[in-house]
Design brief:
heterodimer; A: mainly beta; Jelly Rolls; seven-stranded antiparallel sheet; about 35% strand; B: mainly beta; Immunoglobulin-like; eight-stranded antiparallel sheet; 1 helix
Chain lengths: ~280, ~475
């Protein structure tokens, strides 16, 4: 990644920027490096702690269901049919949301906050224990709320967490937009050394401003994107985005499940919290 | 046995030096010394054996199957381990198998897996490979059964279900591999070591293969818990099932008046009622259970009524039995059948658990059944009769040489299925010799083999020839 010193209203950001760039460049594969992160202060604007009773559906004042198979497997040749059944999605009565992918006719669940919550800029974080197995694809991501008038990829997409179940030690962050979508999206992986993400809860977050999109795992910054990263392509990240949570099975991104894929696979979400900068 | 002579020489010389210098020193105070700790060495075989390893071949195997290889090595390392599995019926041994033992033992509690690379000269399956077999108590055995091996090197991970138990383990690795399609083959293993991997998913142990099943049994009868496995998730996201010994588990009976269970996973029914056997491993529950429905008093097989003079008895309380070598030959390595024979009110019963096949043998002397007309056996199936289930009864005559093989043995197999086979009621089976033409002569009958088991339980009583 190349960084130029840019003019910005916040003077103190410049030094931090360059210092940060150096550290991120050198240490994006391990968390031992000490990061001098920008000091931002946040106030909570929206959250869901999933404190519903065991077996209950997610709060429908906050979430909608995406149901069925979408178009062409939700655009990716995914194999699952999304349902709203408690076997695929429920709160567990212990403060967690469970999204479960099942076999025998692949089913799973996908929920979003479109029309109920969207925000431009801020910090979007979730504490999640993910899944494993070839072809299993959990995700915590966002798309532009203008998607109905500006279809994808013009609306923009920010992927905070995506994993491929056959390599449970790697997590990916990605943005999609016009000219940098699908196969040419801007992605970066973060890999655990001698550990894997599905053994425990981890915090996945994005901090997003007018000229930066920073991806974190457990408060370690591993991927920074700025308008310069797009090399002249259009920065479409200046409007509100809504949130999506799902577990997909198969498809062009992750590959297909095999006979060795253990089912069912449950992604556990402890909370989703959204902040804006003070 | 492979020794690293260089290290031995150095140690020997060092020892000599210490002895020489020690003579002139003061007498040491040896109180308060700690017991020697077992080494925590991780490496087993990298380019050669690490530490004090020896190799012992299993009985019946080709003792020369294992050798050190210098060409087919992983990642161009100096040496690897080579295993040449013989053809079936090779006079040198019918399979390859053995144990790599550390004579002093190691503290493996800081590791969570045995790992190695393996490849073969063709696509094969290694029947069993693991650790914990120490040619002795074999207390903490863990193994993978039927491991597929390809022609390219692949890393195998065998997780340790509870490393805290392996503080003094001698059995670092063992294997058994049989010919495939009666032909032998070659495989290689390299980079054998213990590791502590953070990339293995948290394991789940199970008894009864994770199933909740029940059996009906009788007071005084033992049942061994089987299907003792642990499932781990490998770094590739797929599961690996390993078999482990019962010593890793703590067993519990929910109703100790109805059934007790010992540390080896053997449950004993005590009185009428129901009890569920469960287990934990290092404090965490294992999935699966066995519910014992004790039907109270045992129901005997119908007492035979034929006169003794018309009977040659192999096993029955109603007759005098001829000398029998054994009622269970424990024919390793493929037989799973174990015996938990019981006696209820003076009635002796053969109780075969985990029954796949079993052999009874009588050669001192063999049985001359020429004057007999039939073979009889009573069988009892405590569990359900699965669809397709068979019981095959094979009589074997050793021929004039009165010993196994020699070209003069004959045998006949008779198959029984449902509806003859029923559950929970004695099945009385009679086979006339006229229906066993494969048994060309019957003046040296020496074996009765029962086959067709599906790892369930079978009681047998009243085994005899009659006219």
């Amino acid at each position: 990644m190349n960084f130029q010193i840019i003019k910005t209203k916040k003077i103190n950001k410049v030094n931090t920027f360059a210092y940060l760039a150096l550290i991120v460049l050198l240490s994006s594969c391990q968390k031992d490096g000490i990061q001098d992160l920008p000091k931002r202060s946040w106030e909570l604007t929206w959250s869901d702690d999933f404190n519903g009773t065991a077996g209950s559906a997610p709060d429908n004042s906050k979430w909608n269901f995406d149901l069925g198979t979408g178009t062409n497997g939700w655009g990716n040749s995914e194999l699952q049919t999304y349902t709203n059944q408690s076997s695929n999605i429920q709160q567990d009565g212990n403060g967690r949301l469970l999204i479960t992918a099942r076999s025998g006719g692949f089913t799973s669940a996908r929920i979003n906050t479109k029309g109920k919550f969207a925000q431009a800029y801020g910090r979007f974080e979730a504490r999640i224990k993910t899944t494993h197995g070839p072809g299993i694809w959990p995700a915590f991501w966002m798309m532009g709320a203008n998607i109905d008038s500006k279809p994808w990829p013009q609306c923009g997409e920010i992927d905070i967490l995506e994993q491929k179940g056959q390599e449970p030690h790697i997590t990916y962050s990605t943005i999609h937009g016009p000219g940098y979508a699908g196969g040419s999206s801007i992605a970066k992986m973060f890999s655990l050394e001698n550990d894997r993400f599905d053994n425990d809860f981890h915090i996945y977050a994005v901090e997003w401003g007018t000229d930066f999109i920073d991806f974190y795992v457990d408060n370690f910054l591993f991927h920074r994107i700025t308008p310069e990263t797009l090399k002249g392509k259009e920065w479409v990240f200046n409007q509100p985005f809504f949130i999506i949570l799902n577990v997909a099975i198969g498809g062009n991104y992750v590959g297909f499940p095999t006979a060795g894929t253990p089912f069912p696979q449950t992604m556990m979400v402890d909370y989703v919290k959204v902040y804006k900068q003070r | 046995m492979k020794n690293n002579k260089t290290i031995q020489t150095i140690l020997f010389n060092l020892l000599g030096l210490i002895i020489l210098t020690g003579i002139a020193c003061k007498k040491r105070d040896v109180t308060g010394l700690e017991a020697p700790k077992f080494p925590k060495t991780a490496d087993v075989f990298i380019d050669d054996f690490t530490g004090d390893l020896g190799y012992g071949a299993f009985g019946g195997s080709d003792v020369r199957a294992f050798s050190i290889e210098t060409r087919e090595t992983y990642n161009n390392s100096r040496q690897s381990m080579r295993f040449d599995v013989p053809d079936a019926n090779s006079p040198l041994g019918s399979y390859a198998g053995g144990v790599f033992i550390s004579n002093s033992g190691r503290d493996l509690s800081g590791f969570n897996a045995l790992t190695f690379y393996i490849k073969a000269n063709q696509a094969i399956t290694v029947g069993e490979i693991g650790f914990g077999n120490d040619f002795g108590a074999n207390r903490y055995v863990v193994s993978i059964k039927d491991l597929p091996v390809a022609t390219g090197w692949k890393k195998i991970i065998i997780p340790i279900p509870d490393p805290s138990k392996l503080t003094a383990e001698k059995g670092l690795m063992y294997y058994a591999a049989a010919p495939i399609g009666n032909r032998g083959y070659t495989f290689w293993i390299d980079e054998v070591k213990f590791e502590k991997l953070g990339t293995i998913g948290l394991g789940q142990a199970s008894i009864n293969n994770g199933n909740n099943t029940s059996i009906t049994t009788f007071a005084g009868v033992n049942t061994t818990i089987t299907g003792v496995i642990a499932t781990f998730n490998l770094p590739t996201g797929v599961n690996q099932i390993v078999n482990l010994s019962t010593a890793y588990f703590d067993f519990k009976s929910s109703n100790t008046a109805v059934a007790s269970v010992n540390a080896n996973g053997v449950a004993t029914a005590l009185s009428a009622g129901t009890s569920t056997i469960t287990a934990t491993i290092s404090g965490k529950p294992a999935t699966g259970s066995l519910t014992i429905n004790c039907a109270g008093r045992y129901v005997n097989a119908p007492t035979p009524t034929r006169p003794q003079s018309n009977v040659i008895s192999i096993f029955s309380d109603a007759y005098t039995n001829v000398p029998v070598n054994y009622y269970n030959g424990y024919w390793a390595p493929w037989q799973t059948t174990i015996s938990n024979d019981f006696t209820v009110n003076g009635d002796n019963v053969l109780n075969y658990n985990v029954f796949n096949f079993v052999g009874m043998e009588f050669t001192a002397p063999t049985v001359n059944a020429t004057s007999m007309t039939h073979f009889h056996l009573d069988a009892f199936f405590p569990g359900t009769i699965a669809p397709g289930r068979q019981l095959r009864i094979i009589l074997v005559d050793f021929g004039a040489d009165r010993s196994f093989g020699g070209g003069d043995d004959t045998r006949h197999s008779t198959t029984f299925t449902a509806p003859t086979l029923v559950s929970q009621s004695w099945v009385q089976l009679d086979i006339p010799f006229s229906a066993m033409p494969g048994l060309v002569s019957r003046n040296n009958i020496a074996q009765i083999i029962l086959e067709g088991g599906d790892n369930s339980t079978l009681y047998v009583d009243n085994v005899y020839f009659w006219r």
